Amino acid sequence: MVQKAIRLGGRRSAARPLGNPTRGTTNPNRMRRVDRWLTGPQAWRLRPGTTGAPPIAVDLGYGASPRTAVELFERLRASESLVQVIGIEIEPDRVTQAKPLEQPGLEFRVGGFEIPTEKNPTIIRAFNVLRQYEEADVPAIWDTLRSRLAPNGVVVEGTCDEIGRRSSWVGITNDGPTTLSISLRFGDFALPSEVAERLPKALIHRNIPGERVHGFLEAADRAWLAAAPLASFGNRQRWISMCKTLRTAGWPVLDGVSRWRLGELTVDWSCVAPRTGGLALADDADPAA
């Protein structure tokens, strides 16, 4: 039995990591889409601050294989040579197995949502971790993670399929959730809304009429279908047209063609936030209305 409420609130042993073990399944290159976002629009966060201290990135709940943590290290190092990556797992055996892969700038530790690092990390990547929890647990988990962020840091919490072709994530800063990103492999979907089965826990049960995320995915589908004549020029051009149509219609679409051409689309959290519950907006007006 998963003891979410007990582990996330109330009293616990200081030596006991906060959270529950994941299934641990993972595959090489599974996180490439979110890592591409971290080394793209979010790369500025990795620059050393005024103290010159190396930025820290955490791969939380990397699973039975440390491969995705190693890949995160390699990708972030290509963007910022001083970054330090710490893979954190709640299962001690998984950490023991990962230890031989440690090298300067990469290490593995036992821990959970409390993030056992001496300095606050700039990036916390928690992917395919919250799927086992209840939606009601999400606000407390997000608050715990963002409380550990360095200034200008970001938590990226999301989900992807087994081989990383369909992915979505929420960007969470010190002030709370700010963005939702979806990223799909061209040729692997008929409609953008097929990403719904890989939405983050905060949204996956909200894809129903009347909820913002449902309206957003419906609008994306309509824009994608309207751009069908561009299919002869490739799905990349069709996706770019979809993004432009959404922006023109008033949806708070971020970034530009350089990101859209990757099959990526990021919007402001306000247009997808749940209407009720701990992550609802104080103002229930439709941002895209």
Q: In brief, what are we looking at here?
A:
The chain has helices spanning 4-8, 32-38, 67-79, 92-98, 138-146, 201-204, 212-226, 235-248, 257-260, and strands spanning 56-60, 84-89, 106-110, 123-127, 154-160, 166-173, 176-184, 264-268.
Structural summary, described in words:
The protein is of the alpha/beta class and 289 residues long. The chain contains 9 helices and 8 strands. The chain has a domain at 4-185 and 265-271: Vaccinia Virus protein VP39 (Rossmann fold, 3-Layer(aba) Sandwich), CATH 3.40.50.150. 27% of the residues lie in helices and 17% in strands. It has an 8-stranded mixed β-sheet, sandwiched between helices. α2 (32-38) runs parallel beside α3. The longest helix has 15 residues, at 212-226. The radius of gyration is 19 Å and the shape is globular.
CATH class wording of the domain at 4-185 and 265-271 = Alpha Beta
Low-confidence stretches: 1-7, 9-13
CATH topological fold name of the domain at 4-185 and 265-271: Rossmann fold
End-to-end distance = 43 Å
CATH architecture classification of the domain at 4-185 and 265-271 = 3-Layer(aba) Sandwich
As a percent range, the share of strand residues is 15-25%
Give the biggest sheet.
Answer: 8 strands, mixed
C-alpha-based Rg, rounded: 19 Å
